[in-house]
Amino acid sequence: VQLVESGGGLVQPGGSLRLSCAASGFTFSSYHMSWYRQTLRKERVLVASITSNGVGTYYADSVKGRFIISRDNAKNTVYLQMNSLKPEDTAVYYCYIQTIDYWGQGTQVTVSS
């Protein structure tokens, strides 16, 4: 199993980023996928989740209306479109498969002017 996140970086407040998580080594279309984030000295918190078929989604209140989770099962990839970014969105963002308790390596997102 492998999860590889990409798309992080430095962005100004109000800007946008799209994170990608490329999956391999398992039947991607069978699993719900999630994005978590972690800031320094804090535990990882759930940001968004998506069902295996992409129909159902969940968002943390802190990102609702600004972030969009999606997936392309043909490309074995899950995305997190992040809009109207705020400094408090600064964190390392992780891709996660709850069913098998597997994490990606994370990608840093920094929102700063």
Give, in order, the helices and strands. Answer: EEEEEEEEEEE
Described by strand count, sense and barrel closure, the largest sheet is: 7 strands, mixed
Quote the distance from N terminus to C terminus. 37 Å
**What structural class do helix, strand and pairing data support?**
mainly beta
In which range does the helix fraction lie?
A: under 10%
Supply Rg. Answer: 13 Å
- Count the strands? 11
Overall mean pLDDT score? 96
Instruction: Point out poorly predicted stretches.
Output: none
Shape: globular
Count of individual helical segments: 0
DSSP strand (E) fraction?
A: over 45%
What does this protein structure show overall?
The chain has no helices and 11 strands. The chain has 113 residues and is mostly beta strands. Strand 9 and strand 10 form a beta hairpin. The termini are far apart. Strands 2, 4, 5, 6, 9, 10 and 11 form a 7-stranded mixed β-sheet that branches. It has a 4-stranded antiparallel β-sheet with strand order 1-3-8-7, with no helix packed on it. The mean pLDDT is 96. The chain is globular and about 40 Å long.
